[in-house]
Amino acid sequence: MPETKIFDNITEDEINKMKNCFKAVNRKYIEEERINNIEDGSLGIVLSGVVEIIRFDFDGNRTILERINENGIFGRLFFSQIDEGDVQIICATDTEVMFVDYEHLVKQCHNACSHHSTLIRNMLSIVSEKSIKLSNRVEVLSQRTLRKKLITYFNMISKETGKKSIVIPFSLSNLSDYLCVDRSAMLREMKKMRDEGLIDSHAKKVTILYDQTMY
Amino acid sequence: MPETKIFDNITEDEINKMKNCFKAVNRKYIEEERINNIEDGSLGIVLSGVVEIIRFDFDGNRTILERINENGIFGRLFFSQIDEGDVQIICATDTEVMFVDYEHLVKQCHNACSHHSTLIRNMLSIVSEKSIKLSNRVEVLSQRTLRKKLITYFNMISKETGKKSIVIPFSLSNLSDYLCVDRSAMLREMKKMRDEGLIDSHAKKVTILYDQTMY
DNA sequence: TTCAAATTGTTGCAATTGCAACTGTTATAT
DNA sequence: ATATAACAGTTGCAATTGCAACAATTTGAA
Questions:
Q1: Which of B139, B141, B212 sits opposite A83 (nearest CB)?
Q2: What percent of chain A stands above pLDDT 70?
Q3: How far off is chain A from B121, nearest CA to CA, in Å?
Q4: Which of A34, A117, B33, B180 registers the highest number of CB atoms within 10 A of its CB?
């Protein structure tokens, strides 16, 4: 499934008109930088890089709620309203983001830009892709044991690339924050899996040896 | 936030034309009934009732992956592709669903129905609302302890209704399938919370006594 | 190159959770 | 009204996971 870009099938000319119309603002961030002061109605579109939604809760746990790659979107609109902890938006790499006003983008345009409907269709694809990613996330977190969380996650990555040898896209300590488990418990479980011959692994490189049809 | 309906701001006349155009099919189901034979490109729109996406895994665990209320949507398109277990779509109540062909709904219409763009905008709202619900789901499942899962869930329900006394919308045994924890462990934790004066509860009725600003 | 910091890896011990096997209670159908 | 099934509630015991405190290795900057 090819990822939709926000301006797919729209001419350069039209894009510029629209950007003006939506008061689009581009901003660059460096690795580790926090994205601050996001207005409630503002929508961030990741043009390049990776953005993470991270929660720090009261007893010191760090949780990666979401990882947003190129062409993905984020915004207060899109994340949980129940979250009382400290939720931050942090760039995992150098990143460029375009901010637009969501309401303006979604509502009928006064200027009746001819390509506006294409834009909304693109937006629909992007949000649909976000939903699928969130479903994958639920799939992983809904697993009852650490081992099954790992296996489900490995299978997901493996399915994306079609290979049995995968490279985890972040540090193992970040992986434990993503799987919402203790880091040492996770490493212990990976060691067990190595010992049992289910995987081969060294740091972020993992090779799946188990029968994937079993899980 | 009022929920968007698929045909908001479209006249009855236009709706009928469109339904024809999308080859919309309405179907009624009774409580407990399984929704079968969903084609890959088919999109289900819940007109009334509640639909649940349920996974039965190899060691007998039942997991409620998603609960879809009135005006929500579902379809193979929208759920995880990594899922190797047995995923079923089951109606939690008597339910009416409209099925449409997703591609047809999303792509430019040959007949150029005038209200098609409104429909796509509505669809965008609905998918966005789905994303938010999935984010809430991630928020709950990402909690590290059973107690925090319960508290996050209770807070979510409480926030929806604005009341501290809530009624869990399904049986406690289903709640444990939703929180992805063991039922008896969950009941034990609820008992502890009662004993500590954090909640008052009897069966599906729960009153929040703890300070919600703390969680 | 070398040192410091970050990351990976390990382990004992304690706390939490799951499992199993119950009892008690509430609906539902005949 | 009563039986039966579904649901709620309980508890001992075992397994899993979290926590803490390390050691080993890798990475990055001076």
A1: B139
A2: 94
A3: 7
A4: B180
The residue ranking higher by pLDDT, A130 or A41, is A130
Q: Which of A9, A1, A133 is nearest to B107 (CA)?
A: A9
- A149-162 average pLDDT score: 96
Q: Report the alpha-carbon distance of residue B119 to residue B45 in Å, rounded.
A: 13
Residues in a beta bridge with A62: A56
Domain boundaries, chain B: 12-141, 146-214
Nearest CB to A135 within list B78, B123, B212: B78
Instruction: Quote the CATH superfamily of domain B12-141.
Output: Jelly Rolls (2.60.120.10)
Q: Is the CB of B46 under 7 A from strand C?
A: no
Burial class (CB in 10 A: 0-12, 13-18, 19+), A200: middle
What is the CATH T-level fold of the domain B146-214, as seen in this structure?
Answer: Arc Repressor Mutant, subunit A (1.10.10)
Say whether A81 and B124 touch across the interface (CB within 8 A): no
| CB of A145 nearer than 7 A to strand D | yes
Name the average pLDDT for chain A: 92
User: Burial letters for A141-171: b for 16+ Cβ neighbours within 10 Å, e otherwise?
Assistant: bbbeebbbbbbbbbbbbbeeeeeeebebeee
Which residue carries 């190797």 as its tokens? B84
Report pLDDT digits (tens) over A39-85.
Answer: 888 999 999 999 999 999 988 899 999 999 999 999 988 877 766 67
What CATH number should be reported for the domain whose range is A12-136?
2.60.120.10
Confidence of residue B1 (pLDDT cuts 50, 70, 90): low
